[in-house]
Amino acid sequence: MSDVVEKTLTALPSLFDSQTGAAKISNRLKQLIKSITELTSKHDEESLIKQELSAMKEQVSAPSTSMKQMREIMVRSMYCEMLGYDASFSYIHAIKLAQQGGVMEKRVGYLAVSLFLSEGHELLLLLVNTVLKDLQSTNLIEACMALTVVAQVFPKDMIPAVLPLVEDKLSHPKEIIRRKAVLALYKFYLIAPNQVQHIHAKFRKALCDKDPGVMTSSLHIYLQLIQESPDAYKDLTGSFVTILKQVVGGKLPLDFNYHSVPAPWLQIQLLRILSLLGRDDQSTSELMYEVLDESLRRAEMNHNITYAILFECVKAVYTIHPKAELLEKAARCIGNFVLSPKINLKYLGLKALTYVVQHDAKLALQHQMTIIECLDHSDFTIKRETLELLFRITNAQNVSVIVEKMLDFLRSCSDEHTIIHLAGKVAELAEKFAPDNSWFIQTMNDVFSIGGDLLQQDISNNFLRLLAEGSESKEEDDQLRLYAVDSYLTLLNGDASHLPQRFIQVMSWVVGEYSHLQECVDQSEVIRLLMKLLEQKSVSSETRVWILSALTKISDGQTDLILELAESISSSQDTILRQQAHELRHLSLDSKLHEWVLPRGAAWDDMEVDSSLSFLDGFVSEALAAGAAPYKPPHQRQEELCEQRALNLEPYSFSLPVSLSSCSITDRHSPTLLSVSSGLSGNSTELSQKAGASTLILEGVKRVWGKDGYLPQKETAVTASPVDEPSAAVQPVGQQEAAERLEPQPEPSTQTNDKQQLASSLFVGLSTQSSTSLLGKSEAPPPRFRKKPRPHGSSLSSSSSSGTSEKSSSSRTSHNTTDSFLYGSLLEEEPAGFDHTPKSITANGLGQNKDVKEDRRTNTSQILGSDMVIVRPNTIQHNPSTSSDLTTLLPADLKDLPHSDVISLTSDPSLSVSSCRVFRDEALLLVIFISNSTETDIRDVAVQLNCDQLETVSLRGNIVDCLEGRSVSVCHYALLMDDPHTNVSFTGSVSYQIQPGHTNTLSFSGTLSTADFIRPLVVTTDEYGKLWLSLSHDVKQNLKLLTDAGDPLQTTLNALKDTLQLHIVDIIGSEGIVACRLLSGAPCLLHCRVNGSALAMWLRSPLPALPDCILYHCQRALAQH
Amino acid sequence: MIKAILIFNNHGKPRLSKFYEHYTEDTEQQIIRETFHLVSKRDENVCNFLEGGLLIGGSDNKLIYRHYATLYFVFCVDSSESELGILDLIQVFVETLDKCFENVCELDLIFHMDKVHNILAEMVMGGMVLETNMSEIITQAEAQSKMEKSEICAFLSLCRPLSFSVPDRTGRRRPGLLELQHAPYRPSRT
To answer: How far apart are the first and last CA of chain B?
Structure first.
């Protein structure tokens, strides 16, 4: 090739000399490429490119270089970068080119920028203005380029700058611009979902765009959104089905066809969306049966792309609620795939089978022979996929065969990723289905020796935990352990130098822990083997530590050998080894201590860790008495440092007007400053704690294997957190309130099957009793014992320390299938959409439902029953045939609290389920009404509520013995949100029996938003200032300012206060400060400042996600005004 | 989502690399090398999908590639993309290149990398498939280069002979990428 190229290229210059400038420009690149192709060695190439780069460097900085030349240089440096050479000097020039050049230069400049700079590169800041200018440009090409670059490289913090402009582009007359804008917004959604929450309605508009291309782009967004929360978009199912029908029916313009298949990529996308929507949802699935059938039928042409559609179809059919007829067709399709001679289709067939076997294992049986053939296929990918399939169909009978196949494959495999992946699966299978001990140990040995040090840590951890924890029968456990010890001793007797480190670690732990079980082997022999291992050069120092601790465990009675060993290691370079050697010597000299520290066979007993370091209390008080400075947490030290500083070094730091300066609101300083200051004022107490920590290590000799050992102690640390934390002042924990709640413990009722509920309510009480600081987070007691509902802001029964609260005995249940009903407040509707949250809160005082005056006949007294403890649910006579006012059924004490409207969740012929949210100060109460719509009694009604992201505690009424005809039972759940999520969906089910023995289940689901969990935080301006400084996570954004009436700031803040439960602390001039808290106690502070026509909002909170969530709700609230 | 698009020749020389996720310079080079290593050792009669490769592999990513004459076109995608769909997207890409360059060959990609990038930008934006319609892609790419056209077309026409018949080292005339495929479209690779 080079000959001809050379000739042509040498001829070029003469040709072009008289031609245009562009020819000359391209010339340099040609020369470069030509000379590269002539070179033979990598080294030559390197030096040539280095030369070229330095020449370019000179050229770019020369003032005489024209834009055109610059453009050519950019292309050359792109080429060099692609080859892997650093051309970072040209980055800034790429930005310049994009900024200053004409359209052509711009294009190269933007291209270079998107290739050179990645998200987060600091130079990108210089691009913002250019992009802004181009986004506003009337030139389509410029706008396109700007959108492309925005979607490629813009980081999270730069999105707000361009967001409004990109948003505007959604209504641009040109479809290409709209399409690109949609994709850019999708990219923003991926990077920072909360920033684009407010334009969900516009996404709907894009979906309905008259241009199919724009609609196609919007599907990217919907696929993602539906993946995240399918329930929120069920209402779109019909639209997607219609679109797919039209596409399949050939209604799109012809140029969307690809090899006479109408818009295949669009079809694939739609099928994926439909399968997500129809999963576990019969009514939604029914909508799509017809179109799926149609797709299956149409896609029979013999084209690659039709197979792609078929494959998606088959997956969809198996994902949604099953329909026999479709399943049959899909199974036939899979058969065609698997049996196809085309290897790509075979691969997809296997993939489909892997997916399908979970639903229908028989299908795999049909294709047994093909699968076995594929197992020996020459193609690595096919083999791997087959093993994946086998993994899915493994059971106790076929485990040894399948594992054998997998191990064979592993031995011949060289790809690290595959090894890690498959070895994990083998270990999983071995653990699940092992037929006997020897097989299990042998298989695990294989896994460890093949997987080696690539294996994930938890494989060895799980294995050791399994050995240590054992099962019920001690005898069996010991047999397994004995077998392991035997097998390892044999291995160690052989050549151990080739064994992976991870395996040696496992072996030494097992031998150290259990070799005493093997009576016919002398302990000194074991010690000798381990010492031999220690001496090996290939053993890493981490492994040495393992071996040494094993030796420590079995050193009992072998003092001479051990002392010698300890002596030799105590001069080691490695400090940890040295320390261990010392421990070893101590312990071997003092057998009593040895017995106490390392009791035999007790490796798995939980260790008490005093994480509050209370044993240091004496030391601390002594030190304080001796005049040491009390410990101050870092932020306080920093704050003090700030106060002392006369000059504010940060030019752009935030500061409130003078009137507020008294409360010492200062900006947090940069991280470097922070670390310096904490270093400066680190005092003796802190040091002593460090010392304490190291003694702790010495005492806690036992090596803890899993994560479990340490886990339960977490909240002690929280309670013991430094007292003088400024935020503590804000939350005086209501002792009195706690006491008040303690008395009325629900007493055990005589009803039998309420035990579970009783347990949970008892637990709730206990957690209230035990730790006051956690009180805010633990469940609220049954609300009826309160005499009067309190005004909103008065309760501050929460602590700002956002430690994890103990999981109370929340009734966590398995996942229930969700029904299509939702009352999700976050469902993005077209402007006419409803929003239940804000209005219901504010309007509730004005009297609840006006529509029907329902007879609330009896039994209200039962609910009110002054001090009587009712564990039995309240059953209220009620006539559901007329539209009911269920709010009247709320217990009287709840009725006065702010609550939402009653929303119907689901219903079937016999039961209907509705819910109402009651906003209590300590928790969100979810009141679920179960009404019997039949005349007959319904027995054994049990409600289960499930939500992974919330803490749920059933307060009462979740189990009812008998629900009489036409009556309603009320059950309460208290919900708390620990980690903020913008919206959380819950699922639940009601199981009941109409006829004895036949249990029916009715599922329901719904959505809650952060707004439900937010309560006002009443603080003074002073406290606010202190708290502000102590918070670490902040978010800033500009919001809409309501200017319709009076003082815009006041109006806006009031609007926010009305919809969200916020507390306006103070308004000073053009700035306002607002505070609220999450129910679990974490505060969120908002600082608002009028900035032109916008409201600059700055939020801070100890929880990283909380500001985002609150910001989102603020945006919504203002948008609705 | 598409994570990366790589084109390299039979010797592993990169001809185009576009990453839609951030990697360091070194990692990118390593990915190119590793991908070439993985792809090049595969026979002609195996499937076009490949899992694994620690860097780009991880989690649920996979490589989907096609081999045309001297070039490998490799797309690295995650599980949200349809395998066969991407396979045909590569075909669309190559056919588009073929139309834009009239019988495209490796040299076109080298000499006009900016143009190839621009065409690609019309197909895939920020990792998402933007357009699959060939004529639409060409229209957009051409619209952008119209202004350039006036300057460059003279040069392009002179360049053309290069791509038509460049013999390789053995002296054989090297056909264009798509010439090997007799029909404009065939599902299996050449």
So the answer is: 27
Q: Considering only CA atoms, which of A973, A941, A942, A936 is closest in space to residue A956?
A: A973
Counting beta carbons within 10 angstroms of the beta carbon of residue A523, is it exposed (0 to 12), middle (13 to 18) or buried (19 or more)?
A: middle
Alpha-carbon distance A972 to nearest alpha carbon in chain B (angstroms): 40
Decide which of A199 and A361 is more confident.
A199
Model pLDDT for residues A29-50, shown as the tens digit of each residue? 777 777 777 777 778 888 888 8
pLDDT band for A647, please (50, 70, 90 cuts).
low
Chain A partners within 8 Å of B75 (Cβ): none
Has residue A167 got a pLDDT over 50?
A: yes
Q: Kindly report the CA angle at A438 between A437 and A443, in degrees rounded to 5?
A: 100
Preferred mutation among B125, B139, B163, B165 to probe A, highest tally of A CBs within 10 A = B125
Residue of A nearest to B52 (CA): A417
In this prediction the pTM is: 0.59
Mind telling me how many Å the CA of A111 is from chain B's nearest CA? 8
Q: For residues B50 and B42, is the Cβ–Cβ distance under 8 A?
A: yes
- Take residue A428 and report the two structure tokens written for it: 């999983």
Q: What is the DSSP letter of A192?
A: -
Query: Among the ranges A357-366, A465-474, A636-645, B21-30, which has the highest mean pLDDT value?
Result: B21-30
Question: Helical H runs in A700-836?
Answer: 714-719, 735-742, 755-770
Q: What is the pLDDT of residue A204?
A: 86
Say if CB A1010 and CB A1111 are below 8 A apart: no
Per-residue pLDDT, averaged over A85-106, amounts to: 86
Nearest by CB: A381 against B46, B126, B151? B46
Contacts of A104 in chain B (CB under 8 A): 147-148
Tens of pLDDT, residues B83-126: 899 999 999 999 999 988 888 888 888 888 888 998 998 899 98
Q: How many CB atoms neighbour CB A245 within 10 A?
A: 16
Q: Check pLDDT > 60 for residue B190.
A: no
Of B42, B47, B133, the CB nearest to A344: B47
Class of domain A229-364: mainly alpha
* 3-class secondary structure, A1072: strand
CATH number listed for the domain at residues A1013-1120: 3.30.310.10
Range A534-550 average pLDDT: 83
Q: Considering only CB atoms, which chain A residues are within 8 Å of B84? A: 304-305, 307-308, 311, 344, 348
Contact B155 A151 (CB under 8 A): no
Task: Name the residue among B18, B84, B113 with its Cβ closest to that of A305.
Answer: B84
Q: Compute the mean pLDDT over every residue in chain A, rounded to the nearest whole number.
A: 72
Q: Which helix (H) or strand (E) holds A1065?
A: strand A1063-1068
Q: Identify the residue with better confidence: A165 or A972.
A: A165
Q: Most distant CA pair in chain A: distance in Å?
A: 106
Token pair for A93: 């020039």
Q: Which two tokens stand for residue B39?
A: 């792809």
- The residue of B9, B45, B82 whose CB has the most chain A CBs within 10 angstroms, and thus the best one to mutate to test that interface, is B82
* Residue among A152, A265, A381 minimizing CB distance to B85: A265
Closest CB to B45: pick one of A23, A86, A343.
A343
ipTM: 0.80
Scanning every residue of chain B, which has its alpha carbon at the shortest distance from the alpha carbon of A117?
Answer: B22
Q: Among A835, A900, A853, A751, which Cα is nearest to A1119's?
A: A835
The percentage of chain A sitting over the pLDDT mark of 70, rounded to a whole number, equals 73
Chain B environment of A180 (Cβ under 8 Å): 125, 130
Dihedral, CA of residue A149, residue A154, residue A160 and residue A163, to nearest 10? 30
Q: Check B118 against A344: CB less than 8 A apart.
A: no
The domain covering A886-1011 belongs, at the CATH homologous superfamily level, to Gamma-adaptin ear (GAE) domain (2.60.40.1230)
Contact A23 B155 (CB under 8 A): yes
